[in-house]
Amino acid sequence: MLITDLYNDILIKPAQAPEIDRLKIISGFATGNFAGDHMKQLGLMKKPLNVELIVGMTSSMGIERGRHLILQNLARDIPHNINFSCRYVCDAPPVHAKAYCWCSGEKPISAFVGSANYTRTAFSTKQTEAMMDADAGLVAAFHESVNLRTISCLEAGVADRITLTQTRWPKEKSEHSVELSLLTRHGDTPTASGINWGQRENRNRDQAYINISAEINKTGFFPERRVSFAVETDDAQNFVMVRAQDSGKGLHTTNSNALLGRYLRKRMGVSSGEYVTRQHLLAYGRSTVTFTKIDDETYLMDFSV
User: What is the rounded (10 degree) CA torsion for 239, 218, 292, 303?
Assistant: First the structure.
């Protein structure tokens, strides 16, 4: 039985075998930001790999819209040169199983079954999961049989077959919320950092990050540096974000950190690429952004006035 170091033993080490080129996953629940980080690590191996994910509980519970959009983006983008596909079980009964099968082509090589969903929480030390070696041929056959009752996350009619749920926003701030300022401690916008990070030569002028104060940084409110997480905004936009900068003091959008700057400027009615001033924020009516933690992989971002 495997209980410790599940991430390496199940999701990384088997891929190092020369003949391995495919991972087939069935998971009751899954998160796209965890999948993206996994693709990044697999990509470091510089070998062709396919990851075929089936999310099993979607036929009865649906999937949160933000998580769905992140999984869609991964399936479109070929992250880190890994061919990633994602399908949802759309016909009853739902599938609560968690199974991982490594293959060479269509030949099953090794497999694991147990309690760990394809999520960061399950493959971290924050809770105990148990996994076991399994007959790879049986797991591969199980994956194939479940696949007959699925729909691709990219299919045009997916919203007609799967319920896309909305995150429940809290009515007010709680102990799970923090307020981050877009101003410096001197009360002005930074000249070439923060929301104006891109205001330098040979930079995309929309590049931006949100500064995390040292006090909040020490609390562990946000994930570790370079660990991505999903963010849903008060106006129903979705991003994948990560802590970056020295000591992880800044929040970026992944893929392009200009996404965040462009979004904030649009909310304020400031032109794309324009230098953001204190007066812009005052005219908008707000100079802070509130983040509320839903779980280790999901946050809400409120920039409403």
Answer: -70
Please tell me the distance from the alpha carbon of residue 3 to that of residue 5, in angstroms, as a whole number.
7
Which tens digit of pLDDT belongs to each residue from 119-160? 999 998 888 999 999 999 999 999 999 999 999 999 999 999
Q: What angle do CA 301, 182, 166 make, to 5 degrees?
A: 5
Identify the band that residue 176 occupies on the pLDDT scale cut at 50, 70 and 90.
Answer: confident
Decide: 143 and 123 in contact? Cβ < 8 Å: no
DSSP code per residue over the chain:
-B-SSHIIIIIIGGGGSTT--EEEEEESSB-HHHHHHHHHHHHTT-S-EEEEEEE-THHHH-EEHHHHHHHHHHHHH-GGGEEEEEEEE-SSSP---EEEEEEETTEEEEEEEES--BSTTTTSSSS---EEEE-HHHHHHHHHHHHTTEEETTSTTHHHHS-EEPP---SS--TTEEEEESS-TTSS--SSSGGGTT-STTS-TT---EEPPHHHHTTT-SPSTT--EEEEETTS-EEEEEEESGGG-EEEESS-THHHHHHHHHHHTPPTTPPP-HHHHHHHT--EEEEEEEETTEEEEE---
Residue 130, classified by CB atoms within 10 Å of its CB into exposed (0-12), middle (13-18) or buried (19+), is exposed
Strand partners, 230: 240, 298
pTM, to two decimals: 0.81
Whole-number Å distance between alpha carbons of 21 and 46: 11
Pairing verdict, β 238-244 and 164-165: unpaired
